Amino acid sequence: MKKTATTGVPRRIFLGAAITAAGLALSGCGGGSSPSAGGNVELNFVYWGDSNRAKMTDAAIKIFEEKNPGITVKSEYQDSGPYADKLATRFAGGNPPDVLNMANRSLLEYAQRGTLADLKSLPEIDLANIPATIQSRGEVDGKLYGLATGVTTIGMVVNKTITDQAGVTIPDDKTWSWEDYAKFATEVTQKTGGKIYGAGYDVATETGPILFARQRGEDFYTKDNKLGVSEETIREWFQYSVDLRNAGGYPPAGFFEQIGGSPAQSYLAKGTVASQIIPINNFKGYNEASGGNLVLLRMPGETTGERRGYSADPSMLWSIAAKSKHPKEAAKLLNFLINDADGAVETLTQRGVPINPDVADAIKPKLGKDDTAFVDMVAAIQEDELAPAYVYPKGASVVADTLKQLATEVEFGRITPADAAKTFLEKSNAAINK
What we know:
The protein is α+β, with helices and mostly antiparallel strands.
């Protein structure tokens, strides 16, 4: 019989800000293990990630298949692509994956359409050790449609090799403001003769303005599934990047190209920017790709704003399709993903700290220096009084797309931050209230 959830959230675990999700090409590369002899059920398992994540996931899936004879898993992954369109096509065509990554911004829409299974109705999924606060991020109308793939958040990483050579001091991330970050980034650019830009973060992904809005006392999305961010805050978010670019701390328009989402493909790894906002569960990958001297920092403004920007807000969840032909076996796979320590030893913190505290404890001795730094930051942030977070409303995908479109227009000076903010609210509210 399925057990009930614990009510408290251990200090070492919380759900962080939204991760930059590149999207999942569901018809992309295969990454599944070979079917075991005599297998009679094949599950389709799709997720977002790069080849390194796929390698680790395959190792975990092999363990699942060994523990569940008769079930084989065909997995698919991609590090970029038209996630929403391909997922919609699969569901609309009556051929949804059995177990999948569901974006936070899409969960409510899919749940209300009846396309996702209520995980509480599947006895194969043991929720006894999953904190209620974590479960709440996947709940819609009292039913559980998604469970966070891991516990993580965003953070700032700075290449200390670059700053040391330039003679620039990295500010104290316990107290720094957005103004401090701008001064730091501009100084790096100036002292490297313009060869390296101090800042290289992504303006167009909603993780930044979500945290920025919380720091200003606003909920980007509200409890009643509305848009809560103000026009002024969106204007300030865009204006900040414009001012930083004009000061020289941020690269000129057109500097960034579509180069892929892996750490090895980043401008941080290329050495052309000194700092970047990342999902901090990827700190190890970025540090290795960048020469091993990155410093992991909290986001600017956390102690200078009205409240903390960090909160319990997952970007990706595990879900099961309501029309899965193998719901029992799919539930076994999802249960494995959240509760099996042997599988977690293979994936470690690739998707964040495991949401089951016992599993998180089990993998900690296996972690290296970089992953330990990430886990310790998660624990330290959780000690703060954090703002609430809510399931994203219907239309959140349109909100994300609108932000990206307008960020490009602002970048090239085709629209002012003020006009962009006004358009953002108009289009976003229209999508959410549709």
